[in-house]
TrEMBL record:
Native species: Undibacterium terreum
Major facilitator superfamily (MFS) profile domain location: 37-475
Bilayer topology annotation: Multi-pass membrane protein
Protein name, as recorded: MFS transporter
Pfam families to which the protein is assigned, alphabetical: MFS_1
PANTHER family, per database record: MAJOR FACILITATOR SUPERFAMILY MULTIDRUG TRANSPORTER MFSC
Length: 481
């Protein structure tokens, strides 16, 4: 398969309707086509989610074999995250213009080729460059995958679709460390990336066959706005990391000023635009804004837990990396159980109610983790992790439906971009706060991190319940600049 040719073909040519049903004339896809389309989306989303977390576990091994210092090797993780956060909203906006299908296929192709380049990397700079392109590919997939669900599922089954998508994202992120540990126990680190190649090829073939064509918007793509967006979000992520590690205050202030300047330029540039890349028009809808806030706080809580707990299990309890992965598994398993259930319930009950119940459970689970005995048994750990998984799994699908449902259909791309951006901003801020906790508390940093996680979950719980008192804005309502 000529990947470069395929990418060019998807961007520059029209797609024949016979291969990809046009959903503008009907509500969702038929059952059989829907299964194939979701298989493609699920493979792409799971690969992107796994590679967000999987490199963290392998970082020491990669640094050793590439003869890189620990400080330099951190860029293997950081550049992927930077590329994703900085380009999510541009790809979401481009999806509204070119169709979500084309952007998703482009992302799958680029991610697959970049994964092969990662597996073949011969030194640190080559791996960092490959990870940069891998992050861009993942961003294209994640930026439009939620918008695609509106085209794949009929409206009466959207909750079920969001539940399945939430399951894939949450489990992919949660099982990343476990899967990485298992692969590293039998093979070297390049195989962490090589396994994406056959999966990516399958996802591309399925996507070409089954993903639907979506209606395109008439507005133009503004490259200057893209540059402002990349500068704003890129500097924001750098600021999180450097502030957490307490680097030189001059560098932190420079990054903060740079981020503020780019955000100011971005907002001024897109003022009055019908479909702004940073969708400030959607944030004027109270339900949308509260749902995005709920997502950021909840994923910050998840990031605080998932980065700090491995240190506790290995450094304090003396568990091996593989054992640590299995101790984290109950969270992922219960998310897998609860996400489809919550998705179905969200078709019948308010997302604010379901999300609030789930987040109260998550906060209670994190508090229970703090109160563990000094020498906890496996059961002591697992039931607490299970409670956290139940709460997290019960929140995600209803919140996803609230975000997408509060945006008009023609703005699905902007809403989808905010879904992914909220998740990554939350996870990045959570991970940065873990570093800060260990800097100020030493070996007790994980307790402080879990306490912050419980606090973020409680704030998200309040934001979720408050949505019960907000009237939705009709999609036909005019959005004034």
């Amino acid at each position: 398969m000529n990947m470069a040719g395929q990418i060019a073909n998807e961007i520059n040519t029209d797609t024949a309707p016979v291969k990809s049903p046009d959903i503008t004339a009907r509500d969702g896809l038929p059952d059989n086509e829907r299964r194939w389309a979701m298989a493609s989306v699920a493979i792409g989303v799971s690969m992107a989610s796994l590679d967000t977390a999987i490199a963290n576990t392998a970082l020491p091994a990669m640094a050793s074999q590439l003869l890189a210092t620990p400080a330099d090797s951190v860029w293997i993780v950081n550049v992927y995250q930077l590329a994703m956060v900085a380009t999510l909203l541009p790809f979401a906006a481009l999806g509204e213009i070119l169709s979500y299908r084309r952007i998703c296929i482009f992302g799958l192709c680029l991610f697959t080729v970049a994964s092969l380049a990662c597996a073949c990397a011969w030194n640190l700079p080559s791996l960092v460059v490959a990870r940069l392109f891998q992050g861009v590919g993942a961003s294209a997939v994640m930026g439009v995958n939620t918008a695609l669900l509106r085209a794949i599922y009929p409206s009466k089954l959207l909750g079920r679709g969001y539940g399945f998508n939430s399951l894939v994202v949450a489990v992919g992120f949660a099982v990343g460390p476990t899967l990485a540990s298992l692969i590293l126990s039998v093979a070297s680190w390049p195989w962490l990336f090589a396994i994406n190649v056959p999966l990516g090829i399958v996802a591309v073939l399925l996507a070409r066959k089954a993903l639907p064509v979506t209606q395109r918007s008439g507005h133009k793509f503004d490259v200057v706005t893209v540059l402002y967006n990349v500068g704003a979000f890129g500097l924001l992520i750098l600021l999180f990391g450097d502030a957490a590690h307490m680097v030189d205050i001059k560098k932190i202030l420079l990054e903060a000023c740079g981020a503020l300047i780019f955000f100011f330029l971005l907002l001024r540039r897109q003022a009055g635009h019908q479909a702004p890349m940073l969708p400030v028009d959607l944030f004027r809808r109270p339900l949308f804004a509260l749902s995005a806030l709920t997502a950021v706080c909840t994923f910050a809580a998840q990031g605080l837990a998932f980065v700090s707990l491995p240190f506790y299990f290995e450094a304090v309890l003396g568990r091996s990396p593989v054992e640590t992965g299995f101790l984290m598994t109950p969270w992922a398993v219960l998310v897998a159980v609860m996400a489809p259930i919550a998705g179905r319930l969200s078709d019948h009950y308010p997302p604010g109610l379901l999300g609030g119940i789930g987040l109260a459970t998550l906060s209670a689970g994190l508090v229970a983790m703090i109160l563990m005995p000094h020498h906890p048994s496996v059961i002591d750990i697992c039931w607490r992790m299970a409670v956290c998984g139940i709460g997290f799994g019960f929140f995600q699908a209803p919140n996803l439906k609230a975000i997408m449902g509060s945006a008009p259909p023609e703005r699905s791309g902007g809403a989808s971009g905010i879904v992914a951006t909220s998740r990554l901003i939350g996870q990045a801020s959570g991970a940065a706060l873990v570093a800060f906790c260990f800097l100020i508390s030493g070996k007790n940093g994980e307790a402080l991190a879990l306490g912050l996680g419980a606090s973020f979950a409680a704030i998200a719980c309040i934001a979720s319940f408050s949505r019960l008192f907000v009237a939705p804005v009709p999609h036909s309502a005019a959005q004034k600049p």
